[in-house]
Amino acid sequence: MVPVSDDARPVVEVTGATVRFLAETALDGVDFRMFPGEVHSLMGENGAGKSTLIKGLTGALRLDAGDIVLDGEPVHFGSPADAQRAGIRTVYQEIDLLPNLSVAENILLGREPRRWGAIDWKAMRREAAAVLGELGLDVDPASTLSSHSLAIQQLIAIARAISADVKVLVLDEPTSSLDLDEVAELFRVIRELKERGVAILFVSHFLDQVYEICDRVTVLRGGKLVGEYLTRELLRIDLVQKMLGRSADELVVRPRSEPVESGEEAMLDVRGLGRGRLEGVDLVLAEGEVLGLAGLLGSGRTEVARLLTGIDRPDDGTIALDGVVISPRNPRRAIGYGLTYSSENRRTEGIIGELTVRENITLALQAQRGIFRRMRHSRQKELAASWIEALGIRPSSTEQLAGTLSGGNQQKVLLARLLALAPRILVLDEPTRGIDIGAKVEVQRLVGELADNGMSVVFISAELEEVLRVSSRITLLRDGRAVATLQSDALTVDSLLAMIAQPDDGE
Amino acid sequence: MTGIPVTVERASASGALRRFFSRRASWIPVLAALAILIVMFIGAQAYFGNFLTPRVISSLLLDNAYLLILAVGMTFVILTGGIDLSVGAVMAFTGMLGASLLRDGLPVGVVVPVMLLIGAAMGLAVGIMVQYFDVQPFIASLAAMFAARGLAFMVSLSSIRVEDPAILWLQSTRIQAAPGSWFITPTGILAILVVIVGALLLAYTRFGRTIYAIGGNEQSARLMGLPVVRTKLLAYVVSGVCAGLAGVVFTAYTGASYPLNGIGTELDTIAAVVIGGTLLTGGSGYVLGSMIGVLVYGSIKTVISFLGAEQSWTRITIGALLLLFVVVQRIIVARSSRR
Questions:
Q1: Shortest Cα distance, chain B CAs vs residue A103, angstroms
Q2: Which terminus of chain B has fewer CB atoms gathered within 10 Å of its CB, N or C?
């Protein structure tokens, strides 16, 4: 594509954007601009001010200071509806559509074609089909939204956004729940919109995707602007450095790959585990080992984790701990055996946002002790404070509501909750999903340290690179079966990918 | 051009079935309610031999006209994910007020609009508490229920007879609806009109679709730029107006107003709406379903009086049915969220 020269007129220009929450300045005099027909990425750690800037741009939040100029006209948005009318449309990370209504309504709600005051359903379906057709999507407009997969719902959300006159399209973490094929489909749609001259703001934690699709990057750090760059002129390592504001060599995590000595008694020995699609999964975990589970979405990664930790009960197979067969029939029992689980759904199955950090950390331990052995408040505080310090949770207040923390810090609070139980085995399901790269590295390092201290960890992640880096051995899952277990030294991302992608040969 | 995961299967028998399920899944609970109603009709006819007569069926509508009107209003509120416990008490209060105003000699042309306005005001009060003060709908409408009940007693502690010819005409006129002894009263016509207007509002207006949107996900509806505040307030106002209208109809039905009228009616109404296939979590359901729910409720009452059994059996049967429907709904919801 032809690079837009710097003197081309930006479609939207924000100058001196400042937002304060009480004493805290979330956004401090940030300038930001977008050009038509360009994909622009907003990068920064959690807490850098990305979402604040997006909210300001899309009318979800009022700027305390600063101006927004759209197409040369100064604008003020009091509500998301104002911004939408002006042509700035947003597709949020959690799909903000209505699962109970039809696809056509989800696309056109608020602008339904009407005849004599009544909604004209036929015209509505026709219009929706036309919009879907433009994006190359073959979806029945009359079907209920909830009958479609998340990926299609995401594309329908984009269809809604572009069905009206759109100048700026904001995509907030659109790929976080999509698999590779679905991401490719999304990118095809993005390129199509680019051709039409739409300015697209693409926010993602995945550097690969940013480099694949984006023309321009704006980096924020700590609420301030670091700079605006053309993607092709910016090296990855430089980008990361700008985001983190520290030198890049700190990022390299010490590789952990002490192989298990053969003949060593396995601490956890799982044989022939099966339930639903899972079939005959074998796992062996030694003391102080990090075992990675790799595989595509739907290969059974999470299912294995849930069976190990007593959330679901296996139909077949045995789980042996120290050579004794155990049955962790429910999470409580599993914790009794020292088996703990951190869910991939941090917000719904992990953190309780309305409770303080202290309460979140002491929750599981208190539950384990039972109501008659209540921990004193001072003891709770002490315990929470020690974990906050040990894991570097920020802000470091024990009384902060957990819901107000960034994703990375929430994950650390969850880890602290489990670690307070002094478990023997940690099962971490996507512990780094949706958190910024700095926190990611910290979580990875933490896992390594825990293993060094003798804890065994089952580490699940969709990012193969991460699995490779953290684990000493990797069990590969495909379609609900454990296909192979390999030393991670012997693997590269490419070879692992090749193995995952290998067609099933009915072994 | 099309991507890998987005192709919809077409043109096979199973495809057609899938199409039905992907488009019309929310009608399944309504069809279930209809099936139960039909089974009840057939069973009662087989047992009694004289159940499916024009007289009995016509009375079904007559005896439950007030409940039908309340159920339509309640459907609006439940679809937004709310609940309105005040309707029984508001019906009693507007009935009492209307009866006393009529006794004082005010013309019916003034009294009826006043009753509807009072209902609307009560509904608006609940809506404001819910929307602006962030009070749980359960609590807000509970407060309104106590207030309305108390106000009903303020009007009079004893029953007030209604002698206004126009009000009595609503009830006593028997319009021959079809050959035979089919009949319908003006109250029945009113109730049917309310159902039709309610159904059209929900299906064909932005207001109606916004109600469904709010029930689906209020936050999303707001982000989509829909008028959430106004719509939610209006849903409670609709329920309040329906309660006022039910006050008119119930007064006509009994020929008198009594401050203890309609105790527990709000729960009967909710039961009828739920049996009619509306999800208590909001976002899914139909006025037509609520009508079927009311007919199921009425038929149970009729069957039990045919049996000569105690009317307490009505409550027991309704309770059992309600349980069944809530469980069925849970299963449907659980299944759709697993996808």
A1: 9
A2: N
